[in-house]
Amino acid sequence: MGRRPIITRDAAARAALSIVDESGPATLSLARVAAALDVRAPSLYNHFADKAEILAEVARIVVLDSGRVPDPEPGGWREWLVEESTLFRRSLLRHPRAVPLVVEHLPQPLLVRLYRQYALLLGAHGVPADMHLFLLEGVHRMVLGSAISTATGRSALQELDPEPQPASAEEDERRFVAMVQAFLRGVDLP
């Protein structure tokens, strides 16, 4: 009978995410992850080939922890896409120091799987297939760009305002939602 492993891939990735949340991505090391799990660093190689694979798993966790909005009612795909993108952005902003890691290390197979899933839903709501990638990529870029801007505190408009006032989290999210809604209204679709 085999022994149950002391650590799991998920536990190691969540420990890595905690380190990034607490101290930033520059402080992440296999030794710190191992110490957080109370194991030796070489034991992590039973679960990950290298640090890049841990970072990909951290990105996967942040993305998948965003939750899901129920499938939309007929004609409600725009509102659904706004809500879905808002949940994703919230998940990113729960881990502001991890946002750059998600951008850089998001596993391509996960992104493809999610895009396919969302494209099927858009197709079921009458959105032409040739618009699926345009819509999904456009909203995805808005989510990432907005999250990076908010997480780093580097709004492009700060340079234009001589006395910028930081927006509350609610106001920041309201602006994001308005931006995505404006994008979707500008697309000539059913």
Q: How would you describe what is shown here?
A:
- With about 190 residues, the protein is mainly α.
- The protein has two domains: about 10-60, Arc Repressor Mutant, subunit A (Orthogonal Bundle); about 70-185, Tetracycline Repressor, domain 2 (Orthogonal Bundle), CATH 1.10.357.
- The protein has eight helices and no strands.
- The longest helix has 24 residues, at about 130-150.
- The model has no long low-confidence stretch (mean pLDDT about 90).
- It comes from Pseudonocardia xishanensis.
- Pfam families: TetR_N.
Condensed summary:
The protein has helices at residues 9-23, 30-37, 51-64, 77-94, 99-105, 108-124, 129-152, 169-185. The chain is an all-alpha fold and 190 residues long.
List descriptors.
190 residues; mainly alpha; Arc Repressor Mutant, subunit A; Tetracycline Repressor, domain 2; Tet_transcr_reg_TetR-rel_C_sf; DNA-binding
Please outline the helices and strands:
Blueprint: H1 9-23, H2 30-37, H3 51-64, H4 77-94, H5 99-105, H6 108-124, H7 129-152, H8 169-185
Helix pairs in contact: 1-2, 1-3, 3-5, 4-7, 4-8, 6-7, 7-8
Protein name: TetR/AcrR family transcriptional regulator
DNA-binding region: 29-48
Pfam families: TetR_N (PF00440)
